[in-house]
Design goal:
Elements: H1 3-8, H2 20-40, H3 47-59, E1 64-68, H4 71-81, E2 89-93, H5 98-106, E3 110-114, H6 128-131, E4 136-139, H7 151-158, E5 164-168, E6 176-177, E7 180-181, E8 188-192, E9 206-210, H8 213-222, H9 244-253, H10 257-274, E10 288-289, E11 295-298, H11 302-311, H12 341-349, E12 350-353, H13 361-374
Parallel strand pairs: 2-3, 2-4, 4-5, 5-8
Antiparallel strand pairs: 1-9, 6-7, 6-10, 8-9, 11-12
The chain binds pyridoxal-5'-phosphate.
Pyridoxal-5'-phosphate binds near residues 97, 100 and 170.
């Protein structure tokens, strides 16, 4: 038995995700980068984090990147930097990952949910205007699965009301809208480097991106106790800093991101061609070059389909099985009882198929054949 198999059990025939294939060609460079950090004499922030922040901002056409401990913290710190106060309202969607909403709650704000377009699974911009109120401080469009909300259009909906836009880019690295990268449209963008993401660390990590130098300074202050200068708190803050070892690893990986995303697109196109036509897909929005963090179809009878796919050696995921306004944690919120029919239907039906850049074409075809065999 191999070392990996001893630790993690036998590798399934087609797993949902496997970072080890990507590790192989980059291992020597990553170990050298980690060594550099160990020898540097700086284990918190410092040159490695700054170098990655510069490279990450440059990869997005400029601005300021601020490395933090996770995508969740990137959202929390973005809200703090924008001056969100307890009781303020933040408009978002209920079919996202829980952290989009837990971050809103961590700053004491109230999530206000709008439904999504059932074809793209993205925020329905037609519904946003009606959700805005006197206390609305921020709208968070979630670029779910690597698909992208039209943030330019959203900007026109919120215009003139002093409402900020924080793009949740956790799943959207490498996606573009009319040729512009996700994260360059809003006031601040929040990224996650969770290991499965299009650009993943080897542990937790995240970043904020903004073009506004003053906001960047506030983000930096909030991620470190609210400091302005040594041992002096100018504002409330937390401790959430991108680890230099993770920054060094991410610096090795970043130049490969465009080609990895291209590969995801090629695999998605192969899924498009190979899956039977009666299986509906969640589709790319207009003008979007999708980043395909996830490739998502819809099936009724999902539990049975998953079981039968597993029996054929095909692992799948569900992103996500519960609409957030229906979760116990949020039962006391005003929006808990509202009806969001498309978000709720997606929660019942979405199914994510295996997707990562090193996945082979043969594996995609095998998955598609298994789906054809089990989806009625
Ligand atoms: C849409 C979305 N937002 C936020 C997050 C939070 O990121 P993290 O897990 O790095 O805290 C994630 C990742 O899980 C996500 O998918």
């Amino acid at each position: 038995m191999t070392e990996a198999a001893k630790q993690d059990g036998p590798i399934p025939d087609v797993p949902m995700f496997d970072y080890r294939a990507q590790l192989k060609p980059l291992r020597a460079q990553m170990l050298a980068a980690i060594d550099r950090v160990l020898d540097s004499g700086t284990l918190i922030l410092g040159g490695e984090v700054e170098a990655f922040e510069r490279a990450f901002a440059e990869a997005h056409g400029g601005g300021h990147a601020v490395g933090v401990n996770s995508g969740t913290d990137a959202l929390v710190i973005a809200f703090l930097a924008l001056g969100v106060q307890p009781g303020d309202e933040i408009v978002t969607v209920a079919n996202t990952a829980v952290p989009t909403v837990s971050a809103i709650r961590m700053v004491g704000a109230m999530p206000v949910f709008v439904d999504v377009d059932p074809r793209t699974a993205l925020m329905d911009l037609e519904q946003v205007a009606a959700a805005l109120g006197k206390r609305t401080k921020v709208v968070v469009p979630v670029h779910l699965y690597g698909n992208m909300v039209d943030v330019d259009r959203l900007r026109t909906v919120v215009a003139g009301r002093g409402i900020a836009i924080v793009e949740d880019c956790a799943q959207a690295q490498g996606a573009t809208l009319r040729g512009r990268p996700a994260g360059t449209f809003g006031d601040i963008a929040a990224y996650s480097f969770y290991p499965t993401k299009n650009l993943g660390a080897y542990g937790d990590g995240g970043a904020c991106l903004t073009r506004d130098a003053q906001l960047a300074e506030r983000l930096r202050s909030h991620r470190m106790y609210g400091f302005a200068g040594a041992y002096y708190a100018e504002r409330d803050g937390i401790n959430s800093r991108l680890d230099p070892i993770q920054a060094a690893i991410l610096g090795v990986k970043l130049p490969h991101l465009p080609q990895w995303v291209e590969r995801r697109r090629a695999l998605a196109a192969l899924y498009d061609r190979s899956l039977p036509p009666h299986v509906p897909r969640v589709v790319a929005a207009a003008d979007v070059a999708h980043g395909y963090h996830l490739y998502v179809v819809r099936v009724a009878d999902r539990d049975r389909v998953r079981d039968e796919l597993r029996a054929r050696g095909v692992m799948t995921g569900v992103h996500y099985p519960h609409a957030i306004h229906r979760m116990r944690a949020y039962a006391a919120l005003p929006g808990a009882q509202q009806s969001l029919p498309h978000s709720e239907a997606l929660a019942r039906e979405v199914l994510s198929l295996p997707m990562w850049p090193e996945l082979g074409e043969d594996a995609v075809q095998r998955v598609a054949a298994a789906v054809a065999a089990v989806v009625r």
